Structures are given as C-alpha cells and as structure tokens.
C-alpha cells in the first residue's frame, strides 16, 4: 500500500529531514507516526502527497512507483490519499454538505454521484443532521468529522491524518478516534501523525517512531514511548 525504500530528503539548508527511511504499510493497516517536533513526520507526509520529491530512494503508493512522476499525474496520486488536518481546513462560506460535495466536484464527479455519496459519508461520521450548517456553527469535534467525511468521500486507499485531535478536548478526541477506527475497519488504510500519548497507548496499533529523520521503532501494538 505504502512503501518507502531508503528514502532521503535533504532540504536546501542541509537538514536531512529523512535519512535512509524504510517503511512498508500494508493495506488495511492502522499506523501511528510519532516523534518529536522536527523528527520528519511532515516531510514524510509531503513526500506521499507529492508536494516534495525525495533526493534518494523509492516511494510506492497503491503499487504505483511515485518516486518520479510528471506534474500531470500528481492529481491522480493525490486522489489515492484523503487528508485530515489539525485545523480542519473547511471552507467557511460553504455548508457541511457543500464542503463535502465540493471535494467531489473538483474531480469531476456527476451531480447524481454526489447526491448519492455525500449523505452516505455524512451518515458514517454521524452528522446527517448538520448537513445545512456552516462550519462556524459546529463544535471542533463536529468540524473534524466533516473534514474526515470530505477526506473519504472519493474513496481514497489511504487516509492520512496530521494531528487530527490536536485541537480537541480529550473526550472529543476519542470520538474522532472512534470514527477513524470505524473507517479503518471498513478497509481504508490509516496513517496518523500524533503527539497524543494517551490515545496511542490505549489503541495498541502499529507505531512507527521517527527521530532526526530515522525510523527508531516500528512495533505492532506499539506505545507512544518516553524518548520525546
Ligand atoms: P515534524 O513534522 O516531525 O515536526 P518536519 O518534517 O517538519 O518534522 O521537519 C524535519 C526537519 O526538516 C526539521 O529539522 C525541520 O526544521 C526541517 N525542515 C522542514 N521543512 C523544511 C524546509 N522547507 N526547509 C528547510 N528545512 C526544513
Ligand atoms: P464544544 O464545547 O464541543 O466546542 P459547542 O459548545 O461549540 O461545542 O457546540 C455545542 C453544540 O452547539 C454543537 O452541536 C454545535 O453544532 C452547536 N453550535 C455551536 N455553535 C453554534 C452556532 N453558532 N449556531 C448553531 N449551533 C451551534
């Protein structure tokens, strides 16, 4: 599903953000990516999104070699990924329904398909009753549910969540984790970068730890750890 082989990413200032990283994530996995600030987590996500290119090594996504791709095929690769951010990034002038529909419109889905899919994902995240609300009328947890619905509406093979619970109180954070668990159970691979020690320790999922651009741990049923 996701494979990094001997990946090196060095920024122009000489910082090796990733230094010979090898990671293999299977379809259906749920993976926590942990590490202190500056460890290389965002760099790894940006490489998968094709926002940046590696200096060395190989990257594969859904059996496609995405190490070097033409600009023309970047949208196609991004479509394999659903992204969820800490700060939700919803369009404030669109309703919940419209925010999700928009993600389908920009990839050219038909009106019929949009009318079929949007209610489905709204139901999946438990927000059918908020379809006509605007983002600023929702709690933080509800906004994050909308952003998750938007991320999965085009059926990505992997959902990447970058600190999705970072702006939420503990109870709400757990509600979001239950939504992510549910989506994972339905077959979507989940990669979640996080600093939420309590969540990582309770969930007993695979944990990949990065430190100074290197993988320092990769454990099935891992823990957050104390080295950060
Ligand atoms: P994390 O997401 O784990 O906090 P990052 O991937 O953002 O880590 O950063 C890894 C390292 O690369 C850090 O030392 C950071 O300062 C550096 N870095 C990140 N982005 C850039 C950039 N655009 N230019 C130069 N250095 C960068
Ligand atoms: P939280 O304390 O979790 O942030 P809020 O107090 O913001 O939650 O919201 C509680 C409930 O009230 C939510 O269901 C939310 O949708 C609703 N709500 C919050 N602000 C507004 C608003 N401006 N207009 C309509 N409903 C709102």
The radius of gyration over CA amounts to 17 Å
Largest sheet composition: 6 strands, mixed
- Helix-strand category: alpha/beta
Report the portion of residues in β strands. 25-35%
Sequence stretches where pLDDT stays below 50 over 5 or more residues: none
Oligomer: single chain
- Ions, cofactors and other bound molecules: adenosine-5'-diphosphate
Please trace the helix and strand order, writing H or E for each element. EEEHEEHEHHHEHEHEE
Number of domains: 1
| CATH architecture group name | 3-Layer(aba) Sandwich
Q: Largest beta sheet: what is the strand line-up? A: 6-7-8-3-9-10
Detailed description of the structure:
Helices cover 32% and strands 26% of the residues. The chain is an alpha/beta fold and 228 residues long. It has a single domain (28-50, 79-219), classed as P-loop containing nucleotide triphosphate hydrolases (Rossmann fold). Helix 3 crosses helix 4. The longest helix is centred in the last third of the chain and has 16 residues, at 170-185. The protein is globular. Bound molecules: adenosine-5'-diphosphate (2 copies). One adenosine-5'-diphosphate (ADP) binds at residues 11, 13, 15, 17, 35, 37-43. Belongs to the ABC transporter superfamily. Its main location: membrane.
């Amino acid at each position: 599903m996701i494979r990094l082989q001997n990946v090196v990413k060095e920024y122009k200032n000489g910082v090796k953000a990733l230094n010979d990283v090898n990671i293999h994530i299977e379809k259906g996995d749920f993976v926590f990516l942990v590490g202190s600030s500056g460890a290389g987590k965002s760099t790894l996500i940006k490489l998968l999104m094709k926002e940046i290119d590696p200096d060395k090594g190989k990257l594969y996504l859904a059996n496609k070699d995405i190490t070097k791709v033409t600009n023309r095929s970047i949208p196609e690769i991004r479509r394999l990924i659903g992204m969820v951010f800490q700060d939700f990034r919803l369009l404030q002038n669109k309703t919940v329904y419209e925010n999700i529909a928009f993600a389908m419109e920009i990839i050219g889905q038909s009106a019929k398909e949009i009318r079929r899919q949007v209610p489905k994902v709204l139901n999946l995240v438990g927000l059918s009753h908020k379809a006509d609300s605007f983002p600023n009328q929702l709690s933080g947890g509800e906004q994050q549910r909308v952003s998750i619905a938007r991320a999965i509406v085009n059926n990505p093979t992997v959902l990447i969540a970058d600190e999705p619970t970072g702006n939420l109180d503990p109870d709400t954070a757990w509600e979001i984790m239950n939504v992510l668990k549910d989506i994972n159970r339905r077959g979507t691979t989940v990669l979640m970068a996080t600093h939420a020690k309590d969540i990582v320790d309770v969930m007993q999922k695979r944990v990949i730890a990065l430190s100074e651009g290197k993988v320092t741990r990769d454990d099935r049923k891992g823990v957050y750890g104390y080295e950060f």
